[in-house]
Specification:
36% of the residues lie in helices and 18% in strands. Strand 3 (84-87) and strand 4 (92-95) form a beta hairpin. The protein is built from 11 helices and 11 strands.
Length: 266
């Protein structure tokens, strides 16, 4: 971690979490595939383990979804069971239940550019031939657009079927390439995550954005756990950041297994 922002804040932050065995170590977690199965609620045994972990280190969650969805998946305990909560990659951020300052993609792009991007996307989806289409092809969030070729209103079975189809036919990857060619000067990053969608956000507003909120606190170690840590996955940037120690996990059970070994938790 960069030494330049540890300095004066180290003592102040250490006092804030002096109930932890390692008050300047934080574990940050992706949501889908890391703490929960995709779009499902966290299991009680995972929540219970995280509370054991919280006695040792500071604990945070970072997801691309909005706060409502993250709270749903964390069983409405995101801002109480975690020390820091970062929705939309940290564009919406909380320390405990106190909200921190963020940015918006609308302010970044402006209405004219935003509409051009949305119109192109809707035309592309309209011409797309895939086994199923449902509704909500674009979800406008504070810090990003979430684009789904099948539509976010699909059922669990349709979601699973599209994921398999996409692995074979690269629907999302091809759509991302079309957007990159159409808007090369918009300063946007495209990140494929989850089963059915990809995120579009300003360059630098990936999950590493949440790290700016942590710099004032002087962490000496920031561990990040995620499942989509490959290049192009929505965990890649924060996983490979020089400011973090990255851990690739397969599922929530694997997350617990790695944490138990790393921090000697039974």
């Amino acid at each position: 971690i960069n030494a330049e922002y540890m300095g004066d804040n180290l003592g102040r932050f250490g006092m804030a979490f002096n109930d932890r065995e390692l008050p300047t170590t934080i574990c940050l977690f992706d949501v889908d595939g890391t703490l929960t199965e995709p779009r499902l609620v966290i299991k009680p045994e995972t929540s219970a383990f995280l509370q054991k972990l919280r006695k040792k280190v500071v604990v945070g969650v970072v997801g691309g979804s909005d706060l409502v969805k993250i709270e749903e998946q964390m069983d409405n305990t995101a801002r109480t069971a975690f020390d820091v909560t970062f929705a939309e990659n940290g564009l919406t951020a909380f320390k405990g239940e106190a909200e921190l300052q963020g940015d918006s993609v609308l302010e970044f792009l402006g209405e004219e550019r935003l509409q051009k991007l949305i119109n192109f996307t809707l035309r592309y989806v309209a011409d797309l031939s895939i086994p199923q289409k449902r509704g909500t092809f674009i979800e406008f969030r504070k810090g990003m657009l979430n684009i789904s070729p099948i539509g976010r209103n699909c059922s669990r079975e349709e979601r699973n079927a599209f994921e398999k189809y996409d692995h074979e036919h690269h629907i999302r990857k091809t759509m991302v390439q079309a957007l990159q060619q159409a808007f090369p000067d918009y300063g946007l990053k495209y990140s494929i995550g989850g089963q059915i969608s990809f995120d579009v956000f300003p360059i630098g507003w990936d999950k590493t954005y949440c790290l700016k909120h942590l710099r004032q606190y002087g962490f000496t170690q920031i561990h990040f756990f995620g499942d989509k840590t490959f290049e192009g996955g929505n965990d890649y940037e924060i996983f490979s950041s020089p400011d973090t120690i990255g851990h690739t996990v397969k599922n929530p059970a694997d997350t617990i297994k790695q944490l138990a070994e790393l921090f000697s938790i039974e």
